[in-house]
Amino acid sequence: MLTSLMGVVAGAAEYHGYSHSDQLLFGGSGLAFLLNADRGISRQSIHNWPFGGFDGLLLNLGILHEDLGHFGPDITADERNRLERGIRRLASRGVPCSVKGIEHQLITGFDDHGFLLAAPSVLERETFPDRLDYGSWDQFRECRSVSFHGFGTTHPASPEIVVTESLRYFVSSRSNPARHALYGCVSGPRVYDRWIAALARSEGSVVPGKALAMVLGECRRMAAWFVREAAPVKPASTEAALELARAFDEVSSGLTGLSSLPSSDVRSALEDLKKREKECLAGVERFLRNFIA
Questions:
Q1: Domain count, the chain
Q2: Do 2 and 216 form a contact (C-beta atoms < 8 A)?
Q3: Residue 49 Rama label (left phi>0; alpha psi -120 to 50; beta)
Q4: What's the rounded Cα separation, in Å, for the pair 115 and 91?
Q5: Same domain for 210 and 167
Q6: What domain range includes position 284?
Q7: 139 contact partners, CB below 8 Å, separation of at least 6
Q8: 132 and 168, same domain (yes or no)
Q9: For residue range 71-113, what is the model confidence (pLDDT) as tens digits?
């Protein structure tokens, strides 16, 4: 997975014995529908969103997310020690935990000197630490903040609830985009306006947002498969589901294809993607009406 947060969730789901498909995890959690961007159109934009809706949707999948805290460079030694003890207790009780420095990484164990980390699968060739030393956190000294998360288990909801609530979340994220972005990001179709502005600032010397485009493309591809898998739950919704899946697939192809376009064609491609994202909203609303009828 290019989306490291979902890699962590997939690891936690597998640990708890769930056989959730990737598309169910992406779609059921709402991440398949995410559309956020910071001013630099960086890949890390994908992480700058409120976790409230995500937490609620994860419960439907039988996963209980606990935010263990966000810490900056001013964290004290006592705070580090308390947090480290807490993570070791959770891990010993069978609760998978993760850490986010640059990307989300699953904590796979611990020894006398620190936590053991799994490297995320990401687009860019970066070196991610395979451990985090107690006390110093030296491996993340370049990060402005570090956050920790726990993933417990709870009783999952029915497939109907998983689909209905995730699609309602999608509609909400497009109707109230300001509620779904943090730290200077924008959300929803306005992302493409910001992307076009970044392209103009680059004056064609470089196409911004290639890495983010690949991550968002993965999300839309999973959205397409999520609604395809949802159709059999309510057979009357099949036609609307297949039409919506095609729309998501077209957005996914457009996003992942940006990197191969000549810079002179990128602006028109972004304008077309903005239009297609709006069409996806209409498709979701139509599918949702059929699904809950």
A1: 2
A2: no
A3: beta
A4: 11
A5: yes
A6: 159-292
A7: 101, 129, 131, 132, 133
A8: no
A9: 988 899 999 999 999 999 999 999 999 999 888 999 999 999 9
